[in-house]
Amino acid sequence: MRVAMLSWEYPPLVIGGISAHVEGLAQAMVRSGHEVVVFSLHHPDVADDTTVNGVRVLRARTDLPWIPDNDLVARMASANHQLVQLAAQLGDWRPDVVHAHDWLVGWAGDTLKTLWGVPLVATIHATERGRHGGHLPPGMPAAINAAEWWLTYQAREVICCSRFMAREVVDGFELPMDKLHLIPNGVDPQLWAPATGETVQREPLVLAWGRVQYEKGFQVLASAMAILRTKVPGIRCVIAGRGSYLPDLQSHLDLEGVSDIVQLAGFVPDTDLRTLLHRAGCAVIPSLYEPFGIVALEAMAAGAPTIVARTGGLAEILDGTGAGLLFEPGSAEELAASIELVLTDSNTADSLTDTAAQLLAEHYSWDAIAASTVAVYEQSLR
Fold first, then answer.
1. Does 150 lie in the same domain as 225?
2. Residue 277: HSE in the Cβ half-sphere, 13 Å Cα cutoff
């Protein structure tokens, strides 16, 4: 099949988990013999038209200074015109299906499916209602929710990555069940694993990463570190990522008195992140809201003992598997107890990593996920 895939981010442009998802999915599709062209945004480190591992990536420049900075929805809608213009570079090439990832590319997806006369498939990775704890404050969140609802309406088929997200989409957007498909995220274990022959020595290092927003729960980890600093000798923590909550998180670190043992590292490239994971005594995903949690798969693939909040897709991945420890979202005390156990009991840590490797091999390979996604494309064409 020929697939035009639309994503606001694609490596080396990384904002959240969608970038890794689209890259893994697109490359697996190419390995299976399909043609994939990804429409994404400009990044200064790569050309605007490249082919990487068989995937052609076209990138749009979306700097539109005449759109107000404080109107996110207007900026996204306007920037989607630039995404649509990328189609002019394809010549006679036409896709069989357009696949849009989240509302940020919804307008482009809807326009291109009409232009080409092909079905639109949409993957909903998260919802604005979910990010706000099930409520919609007036203003921008309500506008984004409307764009999400409209995208699921315009799409012929809709994909979600977890049962948690499926319930959220069906209830929030009144989506017919026969239009919805459940396909998990995946991970490439070889990409994240230590190099062959590399000796891994775990340190009393707690590692967390992702977009620094309130719902990611890094403030809970900071409070847990305050409990642990006198219990685990030499303990320290690195929180990697960027986001609007960074100033608040730094204030929280100061109030908890842990600024000396918790480092806010900002953006960390994947190569450096993998090195940190190989050294880490544990990886923590403390999210208050998490539709899936691809970072949990990455942590397990890197061989780091993994601790996650029992919420959303994270609970679906790990609860009852023995591949990671879970704690109640928002509970710094439970999180601290789990971290202390993993850092001080090597048998527990080894058991977690061995079970995690087996779980990934059986359920989260990109090739299997690509095959399931192509089956959705085929259904959209009937």
1. no
2. 32
Let me know whether 163 and 209 are in one domain.
no
What is the identity of the amino acid at 76?
M
Rounded to two decimals, the pTM is 0.77
pLDDT in tens, 197-250: 677 789 999 999 999 999 999 999 999 999 999 999 999 999 999 999 999 999
Domain shared by 145 and 193, yes or no: no
Q: Are residues 44 and 139 in the same domain?
A: yes
CATH, residue 13: 3.40.50.2000
Of 288, 295, 290, which is closest to residue 168 (Cα–Cα)?
290
Helices (H), the chain: 18-31, 72-85, 106-116, 128-131, 140-154, 163-173, 189-192, 218-228, 246-256, 270-279, 294-301, 312-318, 332-344, 346-363, 366-380
pLDDT exceeds 80 at position 156: yes
180-182 and 35-41 strand pairing: unpaired
pLDDT class for 66, splitting at 50, 70, 90? low
* pLDDT band (50, 70, 90) for residue 65: low
Over the stretch 107-123, which tens digit does the pLDDT of each residue have? Answer: 999 999 999 999 999 99
Shared domain for 141 and 253, answered yes or no, is: no
105: its two tokens: 């590319």
Strands 49-52 and 55-60: antiparallel
Q: 288: domain range?
A: 189-363
Pair (154, 75) in one structural domain: yes
The backbone torsions φ and ψ at residue 122, rounded to the nearest 5 degrees and listed phi first, read: -125, 135
Number of domains in the chain: 2
Q: Position 191: which residue type?
A: L
